[in-house]
Structure formats: C-alpha cells, structure tokens
Fold this sequence. Notes:
The structure holds 2 protein chains of 2 kinds.
Chain A: E1 2-4, H1 5-8, H2 18-27, E2 31-38, E3 43-55, E4 63-68, E5 73-78, E6 88-97, E7 109-111, E8 114-116, E9 119-120, H3 148-151, E10 156-162, H4 173-184, E11 207-210, E12 218-225, H5 234-242, H6 250-262, E13 267-270, E14 278-283, E15 289-291, E16 297-299, E17 305-308, E18 313-316, E19 320-321, E20 334-340, H7 343-353, H8 358-365, H9 372-387, E21 390-391, E22 396-398, E23 407-410, H10 412-419, H11 425-434, E24 438-440, E25 445-448, H12 459-470, H13 491-505, E26 509-510, E27 516-517, H14 519-524, E28 549-550, H15 555-567, E29 573-583, E30 592-602, E31 604-606, E32 615-616, H16 619-633, E33 638-642, E34 648-658, E35 661-669, H17 671-676, E36 683-689, H18 690-697, E37 711-720, H19 725-736, E38 740-749, E39 758-767, H20 776-794, E40 797-803
Parallel strand pairs in A: 11-14, 26-29
Antiparallel strand pairs in A: 1-10, 2-10, 3-4, 3-6, 4-5, 6-9, 7-8, 12-20, 12-21, 12-22, 13-20, 14-17, 15-16, 17-18, 18-19, 23-25, 24-25, 27-28, 29-30, 30-36, 31-32, 33-34, 34-35, 35-36, 37-39, 37-40, 38-39
Helix pairs in contact in A: 5-6, 6-9, 7-8, 11-12, 13-16, 13-18, 19-20
Chain B: H1 3-13, H2 17-32, H3 36-47, H4 52-58, H5 65-104, H6 123-137, E1 141-142, E2 148-150, H7 151-154, E3 174-176, E4 188-190, H8 196-204, E5 209-218, E6 230-240, H9 245-260, E7 266-273, E8 276-285, E9 302-311, H10 313-319, E10 327-334, H11 335-343, H12 349-353, H13 356-359
Parallel strand pairs in B: 1-5
Antiparallel strand pairs in B: 2-4, 3-4, 5-6, 6-10, 7-8, 8-9, 9-10
Helix pairs in contact in B: 1-5, 2-3, 2-5, 3-5, 4-5, 6-9, 6-11
Amino acid sequence: MRVSLEWLKEYVDIEMTLEELALALSMAGLEVERTLTLGGGVSGVVVGEVKEVKPHPGADSLMLAVVDDGEEVTEVVCGAPNLRAGMKSPFARVGALLPAVTDKPLKKARIRGVESSGMLLAPDELGLSDDHTAIIELPPEAQVGVDVHEVLPLEDIVLELEITPNRPDCMCVVGIAREVSAISGAPLKLPPVDLDESGPDIDGLARVILEDPEGCPRYTARAVLGVKAAPSPAWMQRRLTAAGMRPISNIVDVTNYVLLELGQPLHAFDLDNLSKNTIVVRRATPGEPLTTLDDMERQLDENALVIADADEPVAIAGIIGGEDSEVTDRSVNILIESAHFDPTSILLTSRRLDVRTEASARFERGVDPGGTAFAAARAARLMNELAGGQVARGVIDAYPREIVGPTVPLRPDRANLLLGTDVPRETMAGILKALGAEVEEGETLSVTVPTYRRDLVREIDLVEEVARIYGYDRIEGTVPRGGGFDAGLTLRQLREAALRKELVAQGASQVITYSFMRPDDLDLMEIAADDRRRNMITLMNPLVETGDAMRTTLAPGMLRVAAGNINRGNKDLSLFELGRAFIADGDEKLPREVETVAMLLYGDIVPPEWSQGPRPSDLFDLKGMLENVAAALGVRGLEFETGGEPFLAPGRASRLTLGGEVIGYLGQVHPRVATGFGLEEDVFIAEVEADPLLDSALARVFSPVGRFPNVKVDIAVIVDEAVQARSIEDVIRKSGGALLMYVRLFDLYRGPQIGEGKKSLAYALEFGSAEGTLTDDEAHAEMDKIIAALVGELGASIRGREREGEPT
Amino acid sequence: MTEDASRKLKELTAGRPELAALADEAMAAIEASNTPDELESARVGLLGKKGSVTAVFKGLGALPPEEKRVVGQIGNILRIAVEAGLSEKAASMKAAETEQRFLREAVDVTLPGRRPALGHEHLLSQVVEEATSIFISLGYKVVSGPEVELDYYNFEALNQPAYHPARSLHDTLYVSRKDPIRESPDDVLLRTHTSPVQIRVMESEKPPLYVVSPGKAYRKDEVDATHSPVFHQIEGFAVARDITMGDLKGTLEVFVKKMFGAQRAVRFRPHFFPFTEPSAEFDVSCFGCDGAGCGICKGVGWLEILGCGMIDPEVFAYVGYDPEEYSGFAFGAGIERLAMLKYGVDDMRVFYENDMRFLRQF
Lengths: 808, 362
C-alpha cells in the first residue's frame, strides 16, 4: 500500500526524519519496501483551458486542442479520451521541465504532420502516478495561466508499505497514523465528522430493511440532498491520483477518498433511483439479473448477498454496484451506504462471480464493524463541503447485534517467558493502550480489544503486539540446548550424502530438474501399458510448459537436460540426478515417492587432450561408474543381468538386481527413443532406486588383510561366444576356494588364433593366505581346481597359465 | 684421498720423488677424466695389468726388504686412494649425467595437467548441505517428508485460513480437490512449503524436538528470473519446555552469520504467518552496499533471508501438544534465495536449466 507522507501528517505529528519513520514502521511490522519522491522538479506547467477541440487531419485517434495558457493561445496535439472544450488541465509550455517524462526541456514537436506547441498532461507525466489513461481535469475555478503548483500540490513523499494479511486495519491512512502514534507516542488526530444536519429527517427519506443480519451485521446510511456534481478540488484529486485512483466527480471521489482515509468501503446511490426509497439487504433469488457497473449482465444465485430497492437488486453487497442506481452528474439526492459485510460471504460471492474490486478485497480481509457510522458521517461532511446541498438529519444504523471487541487476558509472566524478555507489566499495559485497547490492570492484564483489531483474539496475539511495539531488536538472542541424542545425521543419512559424493567422485555432475513429466513421455519411451510407471499422479491445474504429471521415471528429465546442453554446445556429458519418482499406490491417497538415482553419459568420456586422445563414452563407462559407487558405499550383490527396458537398444540393455530384486536398469538408449528426445548420438543411461542401495550399504564388515604377498597367476580362458563373462568369473570364484583373493579380467580377444565363434578372456588371479606366504605348489593346486571347473562346466580351453614374471 | 692417507703418503714419499710424482699423476689422471670412457682408460692406465700403480707392486721384488716394506705401503695407500677416486669420480659423473638428462628432457610445466574427470555437485545441493550442517552443529536432526501432500498437513493443521488465496487452484498445484472453491483437508496437492514436515514430526514424536527438513516445494508460478514452479526450502523447528523467541533470534543469528559471514549485520522484524505467532522476518545487511542502499536491496540496505516465528498454539492444538507446557519456534528459508544471495546468481532459471557451463562453476 502507498501512503502519502503529507496526508499521513494530517492525522499524526511526525517529528522523525523520513529514514527514521521508515525504519520505525518496518521494525513494527509494517515493512517499508521503498520510499518515493513524487512530482519533484516540474516547471513551466500552468493551468490551461481547452478552448476548442478539432479533428487531427492526419490521425483518427488524435485531436487538436486549442489551449489558452493565459499568455497565448496555441494548438497542441492530444489523444486523451476525456479531452473536451471548456475543460481545464495542466499545460506544459514549450521549455517546461517534466522529469517523469524526460530530462530535457519540452520542445515543439510535429505529430503526424501537425505542429504541437506544448502538452496537456496526464498524471504520469507529472510524476503523480502511473496513470496515463487520461489527462488531468482541474477544477473549473482554477485560474488560467497560474503555475500548476498553486492548484495541484505536486511534490510529495510516498511510503510503499507491505501490509500483512492480518492487518487490514492498516489499509488506510488513519490506520497507518494509528500505528505511528503507537510507536512514537504522538496523539492520533481523527478527521472531523461534525455535520451541519440542516436537511430533513433521514427516516422520512429512506428506509433500510436488514433481512440478512448474518451476511450484513451492520448497515449505516446517511443522505445528502441537493448536491451538485463537479470535479473535486485539486488537493483531493491529488491524493486520489497518488493512490492510483482516477478522480471522477466530487460525489464519487468522496466515497473513494473516505475509503483511502478510513478503510471503510462506501457506496453512493442516487436516492431518486431507489424504488420507494427503500434499501433491502437480502439474498438474491435464483436467476435474479443485475447489470453491474462494469457493464456486465449477471445472473445471481441465492448465495449472493444483494442490496435491493423495493423491486430489484441495485448492487451486489460489498462487491460492485448496479448500473441503474449509479450516481451520475445529474444526481442531486445521494444515499451513502457504509455497511459491514461478512468476509466469507463476500469472498465466496466474489469468487463465484469472478469479480474482484477494491471494496470486495477489503471486506474479504475484514473491515472494522465499529467504524461504519464514523465513515458515513465523514463522507456526508465532505460531500456537503464539496458538492453543497444539505445533510439529512440523523443516520440510519441497522445494527441488530453490536459487535464488541473481545476481552482477552494477558499474563505478563507468560509473555516474558515466551519472548525471553523482562518487559515490565506497566510497559505492556502502556503498549496495548497506545494501540487502542482498554486495559484493566492486575496480576493479569484484562485487555479489551478495539473492533478495528479483529486479529487480536488470543493471549498470544497480545504477546505479539507487546513484542512488536517493545521492539524485536530489544529481544536478546540465545541458543537453546539442542536435541542431544537425536541430533545429527543418522548413519543412513550419511550414506545418502556419500552416495551423492561418490557419484560426483566418478566425474558426474549433478542436475536438478522439475519433478514433472508429460504423460506422452512414457509413449515416447515405449513403456508398456501395464508397467508400474504408468501409475501416474496427474495435476488438476498444471502449468502449461512443465508437463501435467508427476514423473514416474527420471529418464525423460535427464534426456531433456542432455538435449538442452547439446543444443547449447555442451557436447560431452556425464550427469546424474538424485530425486524422487512418484508412483500412484492403489487406494492410498498419496503416491509412493521413490528416491531414485539417474545417470547419463553422452559424447566423449575422455576429452581430446595434448597427452591423450579422445575416447567416446560407452556402456561400460557407465557400468563402471555405478560399480565404483556401489563399491565405495559397500553395496554387495549388485548384479547386471542381460535384457531390460523397451527404450534401450537390444543387446545393450541390462537389468540391475540386488538380492534378486530388480532395482533399475542400465544401457544404451534406443536411437529411435533418443531421437524422440532430440538426441542424435549414442546416449547411455541408468536409473536405480536409491533405497535398496543404501539399505545394502549399511552391512559392511571387515575381513582380515593378509600380511604376506599374494601369488599372482594369469590365465586365458577360451570359450564359446555365448558364454557370458559373469559365468566365467562365477566359476573361477566358486572353484577357487578360500585362497583365491582377487580376480580381474584384463583382456578380451577375438581373432583367427582362437577360431570362429570363440573368445578369449584373460584373468589376473591372486592367491594368498593370512597364515603365510603360499608355496607354488599350493597355488598350482588351486589353479588346477579352477581349470578343471572351467573345462568341465563351461567347455573352456585354457591357453596361458603363467606365474607373473616368468615366461612359459 | 683422505687427509690421513694424504699425510701418510707425503711422509712416505719424502725422498722418493718418482713415487710422489706417480701419486700426483694418478690423482690428476682421474680428475682429468671427463667421460666414463676416459675414466675407464684412466683406471686401466693405473690399476690395469700394465698400469702405473700395478707396476709399483710388480717392482717390489727387486727392492731391499726395508725399502720393499715402505714402497709396498705406498702402493697400498695409492691403490686404495685410486680406487676411491675412481668410484667417486664415477658417481659424480653419473650424478652430473642425471642432471644433464633432466635438463635435456625438460618438460613445459605450463602444459595443462592431466585431470581425472571432475564432477560437480549442484549448487542447490551444496547450499542445502551448508545450511543443514549449520543446524546439525546446533543439535538438530534431519527429517524429510512427502512432496505430494494432503491439504491437512500443508494448510489445515498449519492454521491456514479457509478460502485463503494460497489454498486456491490459482496458487497451488493440486492432484485432487473436492470443490473448486471450498478446500478440504483430504485434498491432495504438491506441498507449497516444507512446513508440513513440522506437523508430521510433531504428530508422531514428543518434545524435545530439534528438526530441520530440506526439500522441494511447488507453487503454481510461471517460470521467470525470480519464480519457479519447483523450488527448495529448508524448514526448521524446535519444540521443548521454555523455548523462547530469544532462542529463535539467537539461533537464526548463528545461522545467518555462519552462512553469510560473521561481519554481516542481521535484523529481526515483525511479520505475519498463519502458523506462527509472534512472527518475524530475518534480514541480513545487503552484500552490495553493506546497508547503505543499492540496486540489489532496492535501496533498503537489507535483504530478506527467511520467515520465522513462535509456533502458533493453534498448530500445537492440531498435534495434541499443550501450549502451556511446550513452546517452540519454526523457520523456513528458500534455498534458491540463499544461493542467489550468497553466490550472486541473478536468475533462478539457471538452477533448473542445468547448463554444464553453470554446473562447472561450483
């Protein structure tokens, strides 16, 4: 909310500097987001009178205004919709300074072929607001030729405040002044509301029937008779303009002005258009029509609270007025409505009808039920002052059940205990009184809250008020003792962190993507209809660009990150993501959230360097990275089985299992699928559930380290193509016995020397014992067992069998 | 030749000028050798079958006994000295050769090092870890909660009023919702903050509780430089007997100063949240201007870091805690905001574009 400093000072004396005021308000919870200086530096602008309006010969949307500026009559080009002969408006002469427009003096201009010697000004051009919809209309009594500063106070300082939702009472100038008063101790000066009630008694003029006191707990009305519509005086226009409102006429402007001043939304009816001069506050009948001020014909339903006359609705209560009862320049008798409506009722109707107005926004947040009569009187006084006529005697105040502020006990000890302070009881009482509460002092303070502070209903609310005004900055910071036994990461959480660190240690970079996917991503990945990844959670109101389902796999996100990088020229990628996949879980309300690791390789794993050539990544790079991570975490039993996912290339796909359970996949993305995601070259991808990995990682035990050197033996095993490496290793390990310490495949060979359909796999084996150095005989005995098993079980032939270092 | 040997030789060769000369020549021949080959010929010339030192021993037979003893002694000293000289010379040649070889084969040390592939942890993940570890040091444990959440945990039990704009289809991403206008605790949504973890923990555990919970949260925001439909928060709360607002302030002072540097000023300012009362925002003095006012802080001199407050008694009522017995504080900070402020990132989109040129920087 924007508050004019000059306006604010009307209700409270401010001795602080602007900086001090801004700080004090911020530290009391009304955050000053910035301060603006408006309208400074304007010169050469005078009151001009539009003598004549002519069409522009070169443009339909523009007009020529003949303007008398008191010294000469000139022609200017103007496109304002409200331009008309006879109006007075701020006129910038050639040479004028308008800092809000440019830092150079105004020059003559040719606009569509017509010379324009000066400018009629809109509020934004004077720096009064952002409004550029129309030129400013000055009151008719403004004297042509005088400097605009004399009729329109331009310079002002505006505070831009963030009003939190619990403080609707601060959405008006008097509300802010009340806070300033509580902070500074300077008294609050409410605006005058005393009236010259020279008109007839209001009871003979109008009648209010309150049929729905729940929707409308209070309806206050005053009447002003015989008014004359005219533009408002400059000071009022100025304040409305600075608050972003467009001045219309004195009668309408007064209702807006009081809204800004006191926070009470008002409505002005043309009393002569109210059938039988009657106001009925009731629910609409189903289908009842009303054409509202925004020119919409609306069908109401029985939930909508309306203001009706004897025949039909004339306004939707607290939200928007009807066209027929609207105040116009011809209206002479005005009924001012100053009512209190139930916030929820307003909110629901405003939402159902999809209309939001300044009034509805305020009623939704809560308006002071105790302030309607004051606001009605204030409006009547101002209307009388600006538009003449007579104020009817008396007020209609339909208020069947008075709303009083609650009386809330405050235990000063309790407050100090919660705040960690030592604020004396009297100080607390003083703070609450300054905020407008009545305080009965005792061991416990008995605090009766003013009706404009509907946020204060509990002791804790009063504790906050005390703390706020006492000053949060005076609370001393302390550090509590902490959770003791429970503190810190669990071993499991340390493993989770280790998983991330180990992935990074493999050279992969972590990505974080949105948790969404497009359901057709699964079609693109050719995932079967009965696959669990089809059990998606979809969003009711998704964002268009991000996809409307929660991801059931991290793969689409990874592939898109890869494609995005490649498009931007990053062509060698080693990536991983740690995040959740969301699998709908039968009848459960919430899905299963599966912590998942995804990895991706693309392009070169070894970049071209001066000392080594480039090498493109392949499936075994990715597998090795995953094996390293598993080894580093101490995961046992991670197996890579042949076969797998529909979106992987045949013969390049592996299922990952742990303890017999499938926990993921690894392989090359099928080019058909890769292309669908915009990837033209080989992409390798893996996705593994994190939980089984981490569970398995917890079980690590020490095995004794031999003190004696191992005996190293190499062996080349020739087998049929169909025999998989893993079965050879399995046979070696199984038959090798306790002395076999280490097995490593170091060569894979196919070629004429070993024959068609065969391959040779060379393994380095190490034998050892914790008891002592093995003899050659012992090692050879183990080798014999291994060879026999390889020959017997796999039909292998053995080519080499050599002790390290000795040629055979 | 050792000093002892040299003195002894001098003594013995006095009056035997030819032997004195031989000794000098022998040492000179070794000294004069410049290559291993020359050294070898020097050795042959001295100690070989026809060598000059060998000749001393060969000539012994022809000498009278007394002379034989002295000359034999000279020969021995000389032989030992020559052998030592030869090996010393050989060693120094070898050492010189090693130096020479390194100089000949000098590498350009300004060539780039052969670096193993370097992975990078995402900046957001690093900031989560930084923030979490500060709270761990203060005695907190880490708990995570579901990202797809019930209205009950995300709004209702956090005292969010009915019909609040945050609870609308306009602001929150919903999985299911019974009524477009009226919300229900059974509605399923993507959590809009990490605060539901407060309720879930308090519902199942008893105080004292010191908990932080980092994680993803979601809002229906279009993507731009300062908004993202997916973002990260770190939630924290402490509940025990006699937890005070001073504890909240002190804890967050530690956090902000550890996170952003002890020289930063902090400011604790009243605010409003439905789930805390009293509520506050925590500001840190602007990095750009140190409080004087600049573009980064929009002239205010302070940057808002997080929201916090004392847990509202209504929230305690939902989880069955007696607010007269327990008190507590809670806070929530945006990880992206912390990262942007701490590392000068000026556009939230870079976190989720995952461009390698961004990832590599941290």
